[in-house]
Write a structure and sequence with these properties.
This protein has 623 residues and is of the alpha+beta class. It is 43% helix and 19% strand. It is elongated. 25% of the residues are buried.
Length: 623
């Protein structure tokens, strides 16, 4: 009788020997639930080949823990154990107890248990008059229960809300992020608790909440940057996604997954600050580079071409334009203006800079040696030709040749030079072999080649061949603004060569330099500075002697013209303007060295009297 009761019990029963891993006995419900073959004779206890663990292979660790709990407590319950039948997991609701060191399992499918529970709940609410019983938190409880392992494992916060905005479940990560416990949130309006205000403290109306919108319009709403309010009253920067939940086609609420982005925003803020700092440093670096480039262009523009006057800037622009081409260039200008520096600058910027610039001073070559110098010769070509010699044009193959003082080339040789420019080929003296070259020609002269052409001293066709791109090297008197830069450069150069301290040049002394006409141009300036540094005493150099030389030069070379008469009013206006310019130059300083009185050659008291006479206030000129 008892055996029949066991076999026909309404629940699946297992009688287990835990120490030998054997199922000692099971009833009909257990055979069906565990899918044990029908040929097993349950009444005769022929289960010696059936082990317990073979049914729980996917959760052995939980089975062992459950068994230990039963043996320790005498009874226990679990819903963590599952069977794997037809590759599907079947979770069990198991109540167990001990009997004579054996275990009795009462098992039921968890789905049946859950269904009965919700059916009972629904019936209770139906009896209480709740029509829409399926739109309550029970659905969310089922979701939470069925996915509790997942909800507990993820690092993102997760909570659910029903159609009234009340919280239905909260996972552990949400509790940790917000500081609220589950019991403090479930059943309450989640918006009023954690989403009531914007980050600036402004009230956040519920009808504007994207979370609530999800279960009103049935669409997923994602927000990248908002705040939830923690239990401590501090805002937590979050990004979240509100996903609607439906049951039988009806919207019953939403599930919200959110992530704490406080650290990310902090990193972003630091990154933005770093980028701003980089931009600031970049801007500063660009300004520094621009300043240094300006200094470089002013002092050593294109290999010692010093200056920043309009004439020099125009000349530098021409150099940059023509340097990238293979066009022939002719440089005109007075002696001593730096024509060779211009030629070197063109070569160093060109694509031929890998080869040296070949320089030929045409004025220093004897007339009978021009051809040999230009094109070379072979041994025995003429008396004294004891060996072969390579000419300058052959040396310049693939490079640039600079013909200084090109106007000095003999007329009879100009035809051969024209052939080289036109055909890029020539023969050595005494040799019939033609040599082909690739040479760019830069020429320079201080003569007026057009005049020489008119005088039949220079071939017109050669002139046009050389004069493809003319560059004028301005005289120093045409660029007096560059004299202070040149003076500084030559002082540094000479003092470095002589190992002497750099002397000071006062404003008044600089006036002598800027007013001098410089017939010898830059070469004369360099020679005078070198001489005066040798004569310098007390770390100062003097250029007052240039005033007398300037008068001499003007009287010697300028024709006398009738003096221009000036009215008294014009004299006063001129004197007032001169006084104002002096104050401006000296920045309002009257007395002492580099003061306006010294600059004008007046006594300070006399200057003060004149300023008072003309109503000039030195304070207006003080920076």
């Amino acid at each position: 009788m008892q055996a029949n009761l066991f076999l026909n019990a309404p629940n699946a029963l297992l009688y287990i020997d835990p120490f030998n891993n054997k199922i000692l006995q099971l009833n009909h419900k257990a055979a069906v639930l565990f899918a044990i073959e029908s040929d097993v004779e349950l009444e005769n206890n022929t289960l010696t080949k059936v082990s317990v663990t073979q049914f729980f292979t996917g959760c052995l660790d939980k089975l062992i823990h459950f068994t230990q709990q039963i043996l320790a407590q005498g009874e226990a319950w679990t819903n963590d154990l599952f069977l794997t039948i037809n590759n599907e997991k079947v979770y069990l609701d198991i109540t167990a107890s001990t009997f004579d060191n054996k275990l009795l399992f009462s098992c039921q499918s968890a789905k049946v248990t859950y269904a009965r529970y919700h059916q009972a709940t629904a019936q209770a609410k139906y009896k209480a008059g709740i029509v829409h019983w399926n739109a309550n938190e029970s659905v969310f409880e089922e979701i939470e229960r069925q996915n509790q392992l997942l909800l507990s494992a993820v690092g993102d916060g997760i909570y659910g809300v029903d159609v009234d905005g009340n919280t239905t479940f909260v996972n552990a990560a949400a509790e940790q992020i917000l500081g609220w416990e589950k019991v403090e949130l479930v059943g309450k309006s989640i918006h009023d608790v954690i989403h009531h205000s914007h980050a600036n403290g402004e009230h956040y109306h519920a009808y504007k909440c994207p979370i609530y919108a999800a279960f009103k319009d049935g669409e997923v709403h994602s927000v990248d940057d908002e705040v939830f309010w923690s239990k401590s009253g501090m805002p937590v920067a979050v990004e979240y996604k509100s996903t609607p939940v439906t049951e039988n086609g009806l919207l019953i609420g939403a599930v919200v997954i959110f992530r704490d982005i406080t650290q990310r925003k902090s990193i972003q803020a630091k990154l933005l600050n770093a980028l701003k700092e980089v931009d600031t440093l970049k801007e500063r670096l660009e300004m520094d580079n621009a300043y240094l480039l300006e200094e470089l262009n002013a002092d050593f523009n294109h290999h010692q071409i010093i200056g920043q006057s309009m004439q020099v800037q125009h000349m530098v622009n021409q150099i940059e334009l023509v340097a990238a081409t293979n066009a022939n260039v002719i440089i005109t200008g007075e002696s001593g203006t730096g024509k060779e520096l211009i030629a070197r600058a063109i070569h160093e910027v060109s694509e031929r800079k890998a080869r040296p610039l070949i320089r030929v001073n045409c004025a220093a070559i004897p007339a009978d040696l021009f051809e040999s110098e230009f094109f070379g010769h072979v041994k025995g070509a003429f008396s004294g030709a004891i060996s072969d010699r390579v000419g300058r044009f052959e040396l310049a193959d693939g490079a640039t040749i600079f013909l200084d003082e090109v106007g000095e080339i003999p007329l009879q040789l100009q035809g051969k030079l024209l052939r080289v420019l036109q055909e890029q080929q020539f023969e050595r003296v005494g040799e019939s072999k033609t040599i082909h070259v690739d040479v760019r020609v830069i020429s320079a002269t201080n003569q007026k080649l057009k005049t020489l052409v008119q005088q039949n001293k220079f071939r017109e066709d050669l002139y046009f061949r050389l004069n493809v791109f003319p560059i004028h090297s301005p005289a120093l008197r045409e660029r007096s603004d560059d004299i202070p830069l040149l003076v500084t450069h030559f002082i540094d150069k000479v003092c470095l060569n002589f190992n002497r301290p750099k002397p000071q040049v006062s404003v008044s002394q600089m006036q002598y330099l800027t007013q001098y006409p410089w017939p010898g141009n830059i070469r004369e300036l360099e020679n005078i500075i070198e001489r005066q540094i040798i004569l310098a005493k007390s770390n100062k150099i003097n250029f007052e002697f240039l005033a007398n030389e300037s008068v001499f030069n003007h009287e010697s070379f300028n024709p006398k013209v009738a003096p221009q008469l000036m009215r008294v009013e014009e004299q006063k206006s001129l004197e007032k303007t001169n006084l104002a310019n002096a104050l401006k130059h000296c920045q309002g300083k009257i007395y002492g060295e580099e003061g306006a009185a010294q600059l004008l050659g007046l006594k300070p008291t006399t200057l003060a009297s004149k300023l008072k006479k003309y109503g000039l206030n030195r304070q207006e000129f003080t920076p």
